[in-house]
Fold:
Amino acid sequence: MTVPLLEVRKLSLQFRTFDGVYQALDRVDLDVAAGDTVGIVGETGCGKSVLAKSVLGLLPSPPAHYPGGEIRWRGANILGAPESRLREVRGLQVAMVFQDPMTFLDPLYTVGDQVREVVRQHDRVRHARRGKAEIRRGVIELFARLGLRDAGRVYDMYPHQLSGGMRQRVLIAMALSGQPQLLIADEPTTALDVTVQGQILRLLQTLVEEMSLAIVLISHDLGVVTSICRRVVVMYAGTVVETAAASDLLTAPLHPYTRGLLSAVPRLADTAGTLRGIPGQIPNLLAPPAGCRFAPRCPTATSLCQRERPELRIIGGSAVACHHAGAA
Amino acid sequence: MTSPLLEADGLRKVFTTRSGVRGRHANVAVDDVTLSIAAGERVGLVGESGSGKSTVARLLLRLVEPTAGAIRFEGQDLMALPEAELRRLRRHMAMVFQNPHTSLHPRMTAAQSVAEPLRIAGGVGGETITRRVAEMFDLIGLPRSFRYRYPHELSGGQKQRISIARALILRPRLMILDEPTSALDVSVQAQILELLLSLQQELALAFLFISHNLAVVRYTCTRVLVMYRGAIVEQGETRHVLAQPAHPYTQSLLAATLDPVPGAKLPAPEVVDGDGGDAGSGCRYCQRCPRRMLPYCREVAPVPVPAWHGGQVACHAASDGPSEQGGH
Structure:
């Protein structure tokens, strides 16, 4: 039995805006065990990034507002916990890597100094005290472990002197500097070239194997997510529509949205050669559909779907939120 | 062989940048690119960021002045034309840019954006313009009522449809598409690709489709050109090149493309993690190449030679028949 690290239960999130209440998340569940690899896929506005930020308590409130749900870290609810408690979790137990390595580093400081700054903050929370030279040694060692060649020299370089892949490695180093048990990577390879993407994904996979790190990988790219994740959560318009083992999701998708996504991805090794988009657009979450949020675009929607929001049901090894899944 | 619609011969572009107080740095963005596109043909141009794909597109329209080389459109030498004649010729060549969020004027309605090229080209009355704009909206599958919307009232996919309408209103014979779907979600990307392919058929357009995504090119183009650091390293019929790539760079691109299929493998780590630098007088891919033969490859630049897939490849090591690497 694996220990649950992170349990998100029926988490709802709203943003109060001048235009009304934006229903960003609606009763979302997410489970991550120690050493687990979970992918979250979905398109723009599905809520994958705000879910990740919610876990770390990074959304300013207002405008963010949580009408319900829990985020349990090792059994204890941390949703709405005081900042001092969150600081013990943030970076030290759960860390995050963001999408664009170009914009997350300060151009005026060397990358080594920026990682050292993070380490010093961690030390402060842990009431540890280390000298500058000692931290520097630790950071250089971490750089080397993350495949940054000539780590001592990289420490003293500025962000503009590094390639995109190297910057992403620096950001991963920053995230791992607090020795977290869970790393949330939000589109870590989207801004990178495919060959570099492969290297970064390989690095993440090695970290899982060697450091028994758990990873939540957020991406819009099904190919990326299924290449390193054991389990995949598919989100649509603020709801979880399907959760399944990666191989099951690809071979036997249960939710019509998952099926739609799969048939919309152009593939290299395609024999059929047809591509089908999903007609329509994502709903406006200021006034989301009353029933299933995918119903307006769904080819199999009935009046029940317009009326009633489907709950996640277990079918085989998967969970799916569709009134009609498994019926056929 | 049909006579080419557009031909470029020995295109070269050197950007000079200032670095430091008095240093000048010459950056060869495009180096001796020769290509031709026949009427009604769909040609893909792939490569990583910085490979010079977008610069080639701009050079072909003379939006950027080439440092050297010749461009002919239907036999007419573009380089010899005065500005006024060039403008007249440009109406046969349209361009669609990557980011629909920034390529439309925020204070112009959709109809104004679509009508603008026609208005600038002149020679037609207001009534004709109104009628043609309405026809364009039918063609791209947007309701006519969308004519009065501003860009902020449109989704990404809708904006890209407007960009396509704007490009098509002068009834061009060639459409240059610079990453037209990279800013879009996959389900929307599929819709736009479907639209582009049906328009191409209907209007007998020629395409130059620029993309970093091999799977998208496989789906949209019959012929593909692979660029690496300013030069075309391989070209040929898409299905043959992608099935049996001859250049090690094409092979690594293919290996790094992750299809969402069960058991998809991450690419093997790169043998040489060369980070660009000076290629010397030899092959520009030499530093990263797993099949390099030193010192030969570093010193002698490969010239394009016929490849086993019927196309051309610029590689010293690619003459020995198909290998097992890289393909799918």
Observations:
- The mean pLDDT of chain A is 89.
